[in-house]
């Protein structure tokens, strides 16, 4: 029987995680678990008043992502998750605390809940980190997808998040024992053509690198039409 793989996408706002997740789902036959953004009850209020709603939003995301992990553990096939569980405690919660949007007590309480819940689920086998040092790329993509609640996101806010993402791969590997593939998307369009093929090839190698020849995953790179 082929091994089950749980792979998750990570990256700053606008790096293309949802696009990548859909691509991997279609190409490799993985069940997709979308980031719970569009149906989040507090996201619009959060962007209007981060100090009031940061703790509430982080708790909402924590509960939704834990639900995803439990569903993934019950699913028999391989899965791809749009954004990792550990980005919230290691990046967003810490960043919002540094900005003054989470108090010390709120951050401590959030981590209490995270530690309690996260011990009940397994981390991904592999994480694919999409990143770019150019936040103008992110701003253009955010504008293109046109989510009303994201209109107020600034370059400064994205730059601050990038500071945390710069160390995310080492944190995931050392603290959570999770392998990370970093993909620079600054000049890479993974939606079609050569960029799509390059991305799929990198992922293929990453996912199969530590599997023995007689226990490979049941997929291979085929010619991709743009």
Automatic annotation (TrEMBL):
This protein's source sits in the domain of life called Bacteria
One MF annotation (Gene Ontology) recorded for this entry: ATP binding
Q: Which UniProt keywords apply?
A: Kinase, Transferase
Q: Does the keyword Kinase apply?
A: yes
One GO cellular component this record assigns the protein to is: cytoplasm
Pinpoint the Deoxynucleoside kinase domain residues: 9-192
Keyword Lipid biosynthesis applies: no
The record's listing under InterPro entries reads: DCK/DGK, Deoxyribonucleoside_kinase, DNK_dom, P-loop_NTPase
A Pfam family matched in the record: dNK
Report the CDD domains cross-referenced here: dNK (cd01673)
- What's the name of the protein? Deoxynucleoside kinase
């Amino acid at each position: 029987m082929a091994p089950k793989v749980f792979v998750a996408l990570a990256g700053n706002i606008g790096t293309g995680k949802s696009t990548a997740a859909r691509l991997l789902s279609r190409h490799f036959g993985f069940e997709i678990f979308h980031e719970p953004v569009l149906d989040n009850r507090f996201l619009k209020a959060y962007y209007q008043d981060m100090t009031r709603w940061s703790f509430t939003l982080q708790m909402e995301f924590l509960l939704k992502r834990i639900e995803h992990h439990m569903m993934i553990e019950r699913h028999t096939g391989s899965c791809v998750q749009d954004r990792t569980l550990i980005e919230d405690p290691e990046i967003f919660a810490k960043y919002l605390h540094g900005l003054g949007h989470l108090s010390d007590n709120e951050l401590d309480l959030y981590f209490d809940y995270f530690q309690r819940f996260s011990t009940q689920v397994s981390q991904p086998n592999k994480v694919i980190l999409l990143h770019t040092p150019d936040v103008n790329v992110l701003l253009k993509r955010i504008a293109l997808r046109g989510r009303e609640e994201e209109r107020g996101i600034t370059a400064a806010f994205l730059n601050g998040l990038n500071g945390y993402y710069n160390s995310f791969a080492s944190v995931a590997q050392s603290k959570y024992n999770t392998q990370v593939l970093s993909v620079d998307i600054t000049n890479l369009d993974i939606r079609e053509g050569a960029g799509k093929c390059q991305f799929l090839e990198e992922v293929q190698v990453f996912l199969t690198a530590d599997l023995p020849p007689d226990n490979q995953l049941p997929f291979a790179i085929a010619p991709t039409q743009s």
